[in-house]
Structure formats: structure tokens, C-alpha cells
Amino acid sequence: MKKAQVVLVPSPGIGHLVPAIEFAKRLLDQDDSFLITVLVIIKAPFGPDTDTCNQSMLTTIDTRIQYITLPKVTPPDLDPLRSPENYFTTFMEAHKPLVRDAVVNQVMSIKPAVPVVGLVVDLFCASMIDVANELGISSYVYFASSAAFHGLLLYLPTRQEQAGIEFKETDPDLIVSCFANPVPARVMPSVRFREAKGILGNSFAELESHAVRSFSGGGTPPVYTVGPLVNVNGHSLMGSNLDRHGKIMEWLDDQREKSVVFLCFGSIGRFREAQVKEIALGLEQSGHRFLWSIRKPPLEGHFALPSDYNNFEEVLPDGFLERTKNIGMDLGLAVEMTLDYRMRSNNLVMADKIAKSVECVMEEDREVRNVEN
């Protein structure tokens, strides 16, 4: 069987590395003729090193994947608070020579008879498309988020070309083909994805039919839906907190089916004290049971990741914890949860069975897929 090599370049951070690895595993499960290398950027311009968090565990996740750790670069001599986007973009640009050297000297030269057929980058590594172009390799952008979000990012350059101005809060709602409803201009961000040979999305047509159909009109690189990509085997790159995980699962098992609201805003999601209090009041007044990941923002004037609160009472409304002790659970950084689902009958549907059921729906000869197409 003819072999081919694929190189993945995720952005630094666990939220980018894990989806890249899951995609690599899915690709190898479908076609084991690929040789896959993941280039690991171990140091983000803020937050902990990937190296200290999880690099030692990488090879235990899947031995079919090769990992190459890139050297650290000096953080940009820029004020990150003035423009976080420019700061991070400059930081990633500094990795382009390192990515090129790794591909040439540690991938191509090691197995010269096996061609590198693709360089797969995530949305924050789009500048690495330059490396792919220089080396004559096809480039692909991998999105771990929804198809609707992919469509939004593809829409932005077109809108800017047509309007020639940035978005204003006073602009009318926008008609974006990948969204079923108009989008307020004030929520729009402000992209090189069209230069890639293709886009890989962690979604599937039956889940986001409207968004996926919107890509069929042309004007964008081919979009391949490769999802859902989920880690159903319980391997964690964040380390484990079995005690906290156990307490959360025990609490969830005691709640009624479909009765709990989960609030988690990602690894960098955090709110000012006034906003936290508003969320808390809304939860309390709703009467719904909740599981809430509350993160503490960095000090004013500091550019850093959120941290855990030592005492939730310092940010929550007076008496909130006491009043909601029977309906809510507050935690810091949310622990990783498997997708196991316990039904009312107390039967446990395991995560791998959920994944297999979704994959069954996605098979080309399934009636639901034929209807969708």
C-alpha cells in the first residue's frame, strides 16, 4: 500500500492540541497508509507550557502518531493588552521558520520516499499556509468548532471586500448564508482561510444541514465534514482530578433527567465581577439546577489566562451559595467529562456506543443521509 505523510500544526494550548490529535486518530482509523506527525508548540505567550502539562503523555494517547516539539521562541516585544490579536499573530509568525525546518529536516528528509501530501493547520496557524506554499504542499485548515462558525470566518473577507470598512455596532443585522437567522453586526470579529486547498470541519451534515449546504455554492475551498471528533476512550492530556470528577458525577446522578444547565466558557472565558453577579442572579431566579465553571480574570493590566477563585463568595452575590446549595454546583476549571449518559432507568449508555451510533447515522447508505443529500 502506498504511503503518504501528513503534518498537523495546532496552535499552543490544550484546547487546540486535543482536537488535532483526535483528527489524526480518525484519519488513521479510516486509512492506515498515512504517516502523521504533529508539531507541538509547547509554549504559549501566556499560560503554562504544553510541555509541563501534557507533553509526556502524548505518546501514550496513540503510538501511531509522531510528535515533534518545536523550540521555544522569544515572545513579541509588543504590548499584549493593546492588541491581543496582533500579539498572538506575531507570536505565531515567529514559528514559521521552525515549522519549515521541522517539515524539511525531520519529516521529509527522514522518509524521502514517502511524500508529504498535506499540512493541516488550525485557525490561529493560518500563516503556516505560507510554509506549505513554499514547500509545494497542499494546505488544509482544520476547524474543531461548528460549521456555522467556519462559514462566518469565510464570509468576513467577502464582506470586507464589498464594504471596505470595519463593522460598526450601528450596522443593521447581516445576512450570512451559513446562519439561518440574521447576525447582529456588533458580534462580528474582523482571514486567509480561502488560500487553503481545503477546509476540514468537526461537524456533519445531519447536525448542521443549513450551514453545510451553504458551502456548496462555490467561492470557498472545498469543505470536508470529518466530525464528530470526540475523545471517547477517557485519555486525558490535562491530568486527572478523580476526586472532583467523582463528586460532580455523583451530584449529576442525583439530579432529574434533563434538569441541569452547564455553564462553561472555555479555557480563557472569564467575566468581570459585575457580570458574574448578573449570571448568578439569572441562575437563581430561573430556578434551574446548574453546574457552573467560574474563572477568575487576571489582574488589571496583566495579560494572562484566568485562574481559579480561592473563595467564590468574593465574587458571587451575598448569600448566593447558601440559597442555591441544593440546586447548584460551582467549580473552577471544569474537569474533563466523558460522554457517558445515565438514563432514568439507571442504565449506563457508554460513550463509545454513543459515538458508534452517530457514525452509523453518517454512513453513506443510511436513509437519513440520503434524504439529507
UniProtKB/TrEMBL annotation:
Transmembrane segments: none annotated. GO terms for molecular function: UDP-glucosyltransferase activity. Signal peptide: none annotated. The keyword Electron transport does not apply. Gene3D superfamilies: Glycogen Phosphorylase B. Keywords: Transferase. This is Uncharacterized protein. The lineage of its organism: Eukaryota, Viridiplantae, Streptophyta, Embryophyta, Tracheophyta.
